[in-house]
Design brief:
The chain contains 4 helices and no strands.
Length: 123
């Protein structure tokens, strides 16, 4: 056995190393062959075609019903602003996304930044 010149393997350890090497070689061969079945020009189009053109966020929340911790996930809304939104919605309902600018601390720039992440659900 060639490996036992440098390492002190038992017979079962040599079998294990041999099987691992064989599996690795087969996996590498499979990956190399599979590249030829999916050439570079055949990429799958993963675009979401029915998403609105203005939607740029990863998710959208309804400021009328979203929990405070969900509001905090939106960039530009911290814990304090999320609490202000929750307090405001107890007395008023947001009819449009622009209505959130009535919350103290949300100006035009903040509204512009957070608007893609907001969606008002109708009742």
């Amino acid at each position: 056995m060639g490996l036992n010149r440098w390492f002190d393997f038992t017979r079962s350890q040599l079998w294990f190393v041999g099987i691992v090497c064989a599996v690795a070689t087969l996996a590498a061969g499979y990956l190399m062959v599979s590249i030829h079945f999916y050439p570079a020009g055949d990429e799958i189009d993963l675009a979401f075609h029915d998403a609105p053109a203005t939607y740029v966020g990863m998710f959208q929340v309804d400021p009328n019903s979203a929990p405070i911790d969900s509001l905090e996930l939106i960039g530009g809304i911290g814990p304090t602003l999320a609490k202000r939104i929750a307090e405001y919605r107890q007395k008023h309902r947001f009819e449009t996304v622009e209505d959130i600018a009535k919350v103290p601390g949300i100006g035009p720039k903040t509204l512009e930044r957070i608007a893609p992440y907001l969606k008002i659900d109708s009742l």
